Amino acid sequence: MTAKVRAVSAKRSGKGRRRAGLLAAGGALALAAVTACGGGTSTGSAAPQQGFTEAPQAGGALTVWVDSTRLAAAQLYHKEHPSVKMTIVTYDGDANGSNYLQTKVDLFDRTGSGWPDVVFSTQNNEVSWAVPAAFTAPLNKGLIPQSTLAGWATGANNPCLVNGTLYCLRNDLAQTVLWYNSALMKRWGYQVPATWEQYEALGQKVAAQHPGYLVGSAGDTFTPEIFMWASKCGANQITGAKKVTVNTTSANCTRMASLLDTLIKDKTMSTSSVFSSDFDKNDAGKILMLPGPAWYGGALFQGTFKTPKGQIAVAPMPQWSGDSAPSVGNVGGGTWLLSAHSKNLKAATAFLTWVTTSNDYQAKVAPGYPAYAAAAKIWLANQASSGYYTGDITAPLQAAANQVWPGWGYGQFSQEAIWASTVTPGLNAGKAIVSMLPAWQKAIVNYASSDGYQVKQ
Amino acid sequence: MSSTSTRAGRTGAPFSRRIAPRAGHGFVAAYVVLLIVFGVVPTVYAIYFAFTNAGNRFTGLSNFTAAAADFRFIPAVEHVALYLVFWLAALVVFVVGLALLLHRLAVRGVSRSLRFLYYIPGALAGAASVMVWLFLLDPTVSPIGFLLRALGYDTFGQLIAPGHLAVLFTCIAFWTGAGGWIVVMYGALNNISTDILEAARIDGAGPWRTARQIEIPLLRKWIVYMVILAFAGGTQLFVEPQLLSQASNGVAGRDYSLNQLSYDFAFQNNNVNGAAAISVELMLIGLIVAAVFVARSRFFDAD
Question: B88: distance to nearest CA of chain A, Å?
Fold first, then answer.
């Protein structure tokens, strides 16, 4: 069980929004490294153009907090830059809304010391508390040059923006796509579904013709982000700094909920978490299709399930027929935060720039789809040349990166935790998701209110 | 040799008489320092927080009313109350029962190994022993998986349904915590004079009657002591639901107990004052229940 939990936290990291375009900025990478390393040597006192008051720059070891997956990044940096003194600390990466970072920062605020210089988080809603707490440093006010920041995929850094100021950098994108087993599809003569209607029909067909095989899983905490988000369900419309609109019973929500209910009843939609031991044991070898984020390929099929190469392929997420613009969901996608308390801003900024943009890490080592566009291009080429996947994975992933529905926001409350404690127990007890939508709404409203949100229903 | 020892003895006597109280104070002082630093100061600090707001202004009972009005408060109270019923009942019945059984077995000499066996889980650190249970409760990997499947639970998710939690936490808490109490009760039973037991036997009392009319009444104070401490510990339920919540990715055990709610207030909602209000409430409940039990059982009466 523990190992599985660890695996989940380690793997939560993709996420995507807008376009993976702006690839032209390839050269910006080298430029970025140079500017960051040679940048202004501000020793001490306030630098008002940076948008915050620096701590006295005493130097010393650079403290970096990472989750177990990103440990490789910090270690690689240390290896490539042996002169930089580093203290690398691993923590749970705030996976599944664990709040560890916020908890610790709150305690450090009380004691007045101990903050890490740079932190990786698997969550992309950290700025919702870290900005009011004055923990994160603004990055686009002088710390990191605009030319570097322009290299991110369009909208990738949206979760980091507060009133036009950038407070974190996106590590990777986690746009959802339709993963499928092309060998099985071919053998059974099935077409890859382009619409949710076709997807549902195929699911029912599989139930009749090949019972035991799966067309998806709805047992994870991020189920709403794969399915409800893609269906444009307005459960999480963050409309302001402390404002949210919640409506889980609109047609956009119920159509997806009843699709899931139908397939769950047919037993072609699993209700176990893809990282659970029973899924690994009973279902991992019986996946025909699996809608999910970009990181499913490396983390799940290749890493956890050890699916042999030459089977897994990627198709665009199905759409509702009649919908004008395609929409996909998004599951995570980590962020990097720079502490405003850092006594080592120069070294911290250099590390932050390297870890988010360098080909050495992002393009060659990182398991998730890099948010930095130039790195993503090489990353995709590497994935394609690895020969693990069949067919073209680049086009569907790149397209999906532009199609993440922008109506689902990044609030302080964890939508994943709310779904897990409200809907999943009902699913385990055999209740229909449609029947639980009002309870889901009530829970979101409750948690949002307790975090001080003004809630509109 | 003898002269040295005499001298030592001669100077030793006044020395020890002069030093003994001081040594005693020294030993107690070490504890008192720890008690003040980790017990009294935090308690006073919490009470201060509970009656002030983030700006350190006195706010009366508003933290208490705000905490009680939170949507998670009433469910948490219900959860903890239900858990306490199961936990205290299980503790009293099984600990006393097993201790009596052990005491009977004492004659046959099996009890020493059994006592050790009961105590082992308690020797594991709290969180570690809860982790063991997370394995036990997952039918896929559990050594008792066949039993769980026979009961109709095929997945971890089915087993940790909200209705099962109070019983599950009781099982975990009993397994981790009861061993120590069994050993304590056993020791208490050893203190019962054999004369009394022999007299009972001569009067024709069987094992059942001896237990009910002699041993259990004589154990009363230890049972009360156990209930007071277990009650205080039980209201502070935290590790079991928190770990289960992490292991199940938040499906079960999130916001389950009052202590978790206090933790959420402090670190999720950034409301240390509300968190302190809940912890003060827990302390008051513990104190009141202890007072009632002490008064009703004449706990401090000399025999």
Answer: 27
Q: Which residues of A touch B (CB under 8 A)?
A: 1-2, 5, 8, 96-99, 102-103, 106, 129, 133, 219-221, 271-273, 276-278, 281-282, 414, 416-417, 420-421, 424-425, 427-429, 446, 449-452
Beta-carbon separation of A428 and B251 below 8 A: yes
Residue A425 and residue B162: Cβ atoms within 8 Å?
A: yes
Is the pLDDT at A449 greater than 60? The verdict is: yes
The shortest CB-CB distance from A277 to any of B141, B162, B254 is to: B141
- Beta carbons of B138 and A277 less than 8 Å apart: yes
The pLDDT value recorded for residue A340 is 94
ipTM value of the model? 0.80
Q: Residue B183 belongs to a domain with what CATH number? A: 1.10.3720.10
- The order of strands in the sheet holding A62-66 is A86-90, A62-66, A118-121, A335-338, A169-170
Nearest-Cα residue of chain A relative to residue B134: A1
What is the amino acid identity at position B134? L
B54 reaches A (C-beta below 8 A): no
A279 and A270 Cβ atoms separated by less than 8 Å: yes
Q: Is residue B235 part of a domain?
A: yes
* Residue A368 in this model has a pLDDT that exceeds 90: no
Looking at CATH, the fold of the domain delimited by A176-330+404-456 is given as D-Maltodextrin-Binding Protein; domain 2 (3.40.190)
Domain A62-173+332-379 has CATH 2.40.50.100: no
Domain hosting B122: range is 73-254
In a domain, B278, yes or no: no
The string of pLDDT tens digits covering residues A230-260 is 999 999 998 887 899 999 999 999 999 999 9
A154's CB contacts (< 8 A; 6+ apart) are A17, A18, A19, A21, A22, A402
- Report the number of distinct structural domains present in chain B: 1
CB contact under 8 A, A425 and B268: no
Mean pLDDT for B103-126 is 74
Collect all residues of chain A within an 8 Å Cβ-Cβ radius of residue B72.
446, 450
CATH 3.40.190.10 domain span(s) along chain A:
62-173+332-379, 176-330+404-456
Instruction: Kindly determine whether residue A1 and residue B251, on different chains, have CB atoms separated by under 8 Å.
Output: no
